[in-house]
Amino acid sequence: MYTSLTNRRSFIKKMAIMSAMTAAAGLFPGILFAKEQEANLPKGANLDWKKTPCRFCGVGCGVLVGVENGKAVAVKGDPKSPVNKGLCCVKGYHSVMSIYGKDRLTKPLVKKNGKYVETTMKEALDLVASKMKETIKDHGKDAVSIYGSGQWTIPDGYVASKLFKGCIGTNNVEANARLCMASAVTGFLTSFGLDEPMGCYEDIDHADVFFLWGNNMAEMHPVLFSRLLDQRLKRGVKIIDFATRTTRTSMAADKSIIFKPQTDLAVANAICYEIIKNGWVNKAFVEKHCSFNKGLTNMGYGLEDGYKFNDKPEKIDFESYKAFLEDYTPEKVEKISGVSAKDIKYMAAYYGDPNKKVMSLWCMGMNQHTRGTWINNLVYNMHLLTGKISTPGNSPFSLTGQPSACGTVREVGTLTHKLPHGVVMNKEHREHAAKIWDVPVENIPSKPTYHTVEMFRALDRGDIRFMWIQVTNPMVTMPKLKRYRDATKKEGRFIVVSDIYPTPTTDIADVILPSAMWIEREGMYGNSERRTQYFEQMIDPPGEAMSDTWQLIEVARRLGYEKQFYYKKETHIEEIYNEYRKHHEGKKHAMAPLEVLKSQPGAQWPYVDGKSTQWRFNAKYDPACSNGEDFHFYGKPDGKAVIWQRPYEPAPEVPDNEYPFWLCTGRVVEHWHTGSMTRRIPVLHRAMPHAYVELNPEEAKQMQIRTGDKVKLTTRRGEIILPASVNERGVPEKGQVFVPFFDENMLINDVTLDAFCPISKQPDYKKCAVKVEKV
């Protein structure tokens, strides 16, 4: 698809045509297309095509960007990419337009007497470094912090972690991926001892049945969803949508099963009950490759009235686990969940059928959950009990929302407890990092400090005085938002924000640094299937905009860490990546060399002997397996995966007489996260210009509310007014409402609850109690 910056009218027309086709293909696939993108390219265009992963979600689609006269003017799917095979979603096809918004930040801005004043990048970076020094001197090293993103490139996150943990000596490093995939991390770690999926997207080509656990995949991951539907056309596979509301995914699925919020825990246990009752357990696999644990219960919900951090495991046996499941018969769970016993048995029969390969897919519905770790564990239980794991087509698979939430947060380790290889609590891991970073091991603190919600609570209290926010928009995304927005404005706080456009987060900054975007700099992303993908700098950034990596390096040098940040500007990405690879040497996590990433559309780690590993823990595919058995779950000392005993526990805040509805928040296909990029793409903005509140049609009729009417939502945190949406895109169940969070003019997170999973520390944006009134 072609974007001519000199022919805007033609460009917008072509975008509109492509938007309609892409929306059709992404939301109601079966409408697959590829030739249309080529047909829209002008004849005789002299374009230089360069490969890159898409800028948006964690799927990691490969795209080709056409460059002409120093401008990115065209986008098409990369047919060589095994991820998307030449397709893109509506956001991917419009991605280069996000670079050219009229209000692009090009000059550093410093707040003086309440107003922003332009300055030079040198002066702005001098100020940032001096404020950091001053804060450390007056309040200690744990008074400074950095809050990054799953949109950080791998080099961005690596130098941030090296600067703050290795040099300054504080673990005050967090990323917004804490808000979207932390429960997936702790689910993997508690069940397998190592993070990230054991399978890959190729599982889609082998699976017979797909279970979507609270995952509106048609809108959130439309390219992957089109692959599911393509398999249904070719092989007759089944797609089961298990969700709390009816979405476009439900409409395209073979079967839609609706459950009451939070009760996915109970349903998952009921499925395991059925697997055992009907003799569907793969006994040989379980006896050889699994152990059984139970953990703490009644841990609290991450609220400040107290919660328990640790999940101390207690070994149990199969018979104890079987006895525990007696409380989760389908008939008992039907009363809790609203899911009929018949449907529970229907789901269990697919998991239990030895002749059916099953892929479970989930995203925020499971992860943004006050028992997010638990529900991840319970889905793994189904696959472990039946032995349907780590083989082509048998795959529990967590999807991510950001382009490098895996690569930069989970693999680089930009969370308070993490290091690029291991955790700060482990002395050997600290020694390993310190040696590579060329710092004394004593520099790296042995205890984590603040996860994301606690980091902003610490800013509110005054324990943190300096915060550098890069590539993210927390003044839209934080739950219970008003509290944390007010915290940033308190006396004695200094906020630095690096971004490409003005946002509600730049509004609270003392210094705004203009960042280079995506293909205006060099870098790598890591996607959901452990695929690391490289992109080169294709065009120049505007004005004084600078990559986030180089901003950090410049400040590090001003702080006196020239020895550790020795990189040359011309080759710094190569130098950083080669240094980073040292952290992951070995068969369990080896990263592909840079020349490999440059030559092909990414490589999956572990990359061993010139080959990507597609299925981990399976000796047939994974060279790290060393126990002489078919499977080796080497993340655990005994080589066994854990089947966890986890109960159903209700949400921290449930509807009552005063607040009788559930509030759920989420995304839409046209916009990505807070919309700071996609709302500047005219076609996407026109297609979805503002947020709304979805109502159940019967309840809307009772309240005399029609589409477009103003509706007031009130929770214990505040209130917001939005237009109603009735019988449009999605349909909530009775007693529920849904609001997307992309609209900075309608900040739904002002009213959400900051409860979180005590193990993963990931907030639950899907469940709080709300009152609904027509205005």
TrEMBL record:
Organism for this UniProt entry: Snuella lapsa
Residue intervals of the 4Fe-4S Mo/W bis-MGD-type domain: 47-103
Cofactor(s) needed: [4Fe-4S] cluster; Mo-bis(molybdopterin guanine dinucleotide)
Recorded catalytic activity of this chain's protein: 2 Fe(II)-[cytochrome] + nitrate + 2 H(+) = 2 Fe(III)-[cytochrome] + nitrite + H2O
List of residues binding [4Fe-4S] cluster: 54, 57, 61, 89
Official protein name in the record: Nitrate reductase
Binding, substrate: 741
Statement: the UniProt record of this protein carries the keyword Ribonucleoprotein: no
SUPFAM superfamilies registered for this protein in UniProt: ADC-like, Formate dehydrogenase/DMSO reductase, domains 1-3
Keyword Signal among record annotations: yes
Highest taxon in the source lineage: Bacteria
UniProt entry keywords in alphabetical sequence: 4Fe-4S, Electron transport, Iron, Iron-sulfur, Metal-binding, Molybdenum, Nitrate assimilation, Oxidoreductase, Periplasm, Signal, Transport
Family: Belongs to the prokaryotic molybdopterin-containing oxidoreductase family. NasA/NapA/NarB subfamily.
Signal peptide: 1-34
Summary of the function given for this chain in its UniProt record: Catalytic subunit of the nitrate reductase complex NapAB. Receives electrons from NapB and catalyzes the reduction of nitrate to nitrite.
This enzyme's EC code(s): 1.9.6.1
PTM note: Predicted to be exported by the Tat system. The position of the signal peptide cleavage has not been experimentally proven.
Predominant cellular place of this UniProt entry's protein: secreted
Cell compartments where the protein resides: Secreted
Binding site for Mo-bis(molybdopterin guanine dinucleotide): 91, 151, 176, 180, 262-264, 364, 368, 473, 498-499, 548, 665-674, 749, 766
Quaternary structure, from the entry: Component of the nitrate reductase NapAB complex composed of NapA and NapB.
Cofactor note as given: Binds 1 [4Fe-4S] cluster. Binds 1 molybdenum-bis(molybdopterin guanine dinucleotide) (Mo-bis-MGD) cofactor per subunit.
